[in-house]
Amino acid sequence: MTNDTIALGDLAQEVRSKNAGPFWVTMELFMRDEASYALAADAAYVNEDVVAELYGVAADQVQLFRIPSLNVVKISYPRPISQGSLRDRDMHAGQHHVPLALVRVPAPAA
């Protein structure tokens, strides 16, 4: 970690995750302003390959939705383990957002 980068979660108003049915997870980055949104929406930092690496899913199954009018980036991907199954350690997918919130991006100019 260097001083010229910052975690997405530090730029966001909220980062959350939840079930999108028993077989999918959805996450949202609610960014504070247009400058923060521009970093979160930048395909150089948040893209299908990054999400695939973070969550151990195939990049071609990751869905990204950039919503500039709301300063929101929404991400959906298939759950590696279906909700409520024997090996499910997060029944509501409420903690899946943490790796995404820790993604480092360039710090905005002060």
TrEMBL record:
Pfam assignment, any one: DUF4387
Organism superkingdom: Bacteria
Domain DUF4387 intervals: 8-102
Protein name: DUF4387 domain-containing protein
